[in-house]
Amino acid sequence: MVSSIDGLVSGLSTSSMISQLMQVEAAPQDKLKAKAQTAQSAQNAYQSVNTKLKAIKTAADAMQSLATWRSLKTESTSTSVTAAATGGMSGMSGSLTFDVDQVARAQVSVVKNIDTTANTYPRSFTITNGSWSDSDADGTNDLFTAAGAATTITIPADQEPTAANIAAAVNAAGLDVRATVVNTDGANGVLQFSGTKTGAGNGFQVDLSAGGLTAEDTPSQSALLRVNPGTAAEYAVSSDTNTFSGLMPGLAITATKKEAGVTVTATSDAGAVTAKMQAMVDAMNAALTEVKTQTAYNVGTKKGSPLTGDSTVREMSQAILGTVSRGLTYDRTLPDQTTETVDFGSLSQFGVGLDRDGKVTFDAAKFTAEYNKDPQKIQQVSSAYAGQVEALADKQSTVITNAVTGRKNEIDSLNDQISSWDVRLVSKREALQKQYSGLEVALGKLQNQSSWLSGQLAGLM
């Protein structure tokens, strides 16, 4: 890099002159930077529009999903029994009446009247996993059946065999059983073992007989419902938890206390379906607004937006509005696998229309009323319309994606040219600095020669 010191001999501001010359030299690069910035703004605008198109596609896809049309609204005659739609494609309308004979619980076993300060308890004992059943059909689980070999639990040798250390050893064993010591009066207390899972199949037995201790069991039990009670169609169903997921398709029923004569009803959720149609219309309007924003021209300031003059994007709005204005015609597959063309006509028949501002409108109340009147028909025509909207959004998104790719390639090319200019400008600045530095040296030599000649002439006179 050649350095220079402003006009020591010439008196000229060479650094200022070089800067001005460099501005002239950099003018082509500045134009390239401006073009790159414009292209970047356009690319960002295209991406914004594309985001809205993808939102339309997502909303239209949801409108066609069977899960949408099988959304359920539930009711229960009991405050202690709830029913929740699980979603998916299995939901079906219907009702079910049942008695809640018992609710699920985890096992609790207690060793009573222990001295919580004593250190004479057994150092080793066993816990056996298994299940409980009602041996005499009296409604109480009283028969334990082991599910495998017993697990031996041993208090470490460096610890005393106290009730607290028994509990600690159980909790460290990794079983589905937790233990705790509860002081009831002074040093008197209980050693309690609690299962971590509900259901008759999640029981256990604690054997502390080596220390003369006996645990009193409150067995685990499963929840039990009697469906269609008092009829020839009565049957019982159990669950390890208080939730039953297989009684009605698409529903999870949860019971929290014993109760008779509970009825759960599931009906098609028109509100959920209507909300999906509203979401699709909102997505379409969001895309229309985005296109308008990105193509707008301000007459007052005479300034355009990044995509002003882009006919492809402007025509996109007309294509979206056209899905409403031209009505609905679609192909339907008949039971014999032949196809017929259905000319449904105006979408206003189920609440979709256009306003004067170029937006899509939606009458939710009318859509809901038409759906309740004929769910199958509205499902068919709404899905058909959503399919056309999705196809349009997908097609337009492909066009915009290609435009984004094109702009990206343009920006990359411009940035490469800008980088090349950086190298050229550095070389030009060095050349100018060398040139002006040389000029100063030459002027300095001439000045020295002039001074010498002046001295020689003065000596002759």
TrEMBL record:
The keyword Acyltransferase does not apply. It is found in: Secreted; Bacterial flagellum. InterPro entries: FliD, FliD_C, FliD_N. Signal peptide: none annotated. Its main location: secreted. Residues 10-107 form the Flagellar hook-associated protein 2 N-terminal domain. It comes from the Bacteria. PANTHER family: FLAGELLAR CAP/ASSEMBLY PROTEIN FLID (PTHR30288), FLAGELLAR HOOK-ASSOCIATED PROTEIN 2 (PTHR30288:SF0). Homopentamer. Required for morphogenesis and for the elongation of the flagellar filament by facilitating polymerization of the flagellin monomers at the tip of growing filament. Forms a capping structure, which prevents flagellin subunits (transported through the central channel of the flagellum) from leaking out without polymerization at the distal end. Belongs to the FliD family. This is Flagellar hook-associated protein 2. It comes from Actinoplanes hulinensis. The lineage of its organism: Bacteria, Bacillati, Actinomycetota, Actinomycetes, Micromonosporales. The gene is fliD.
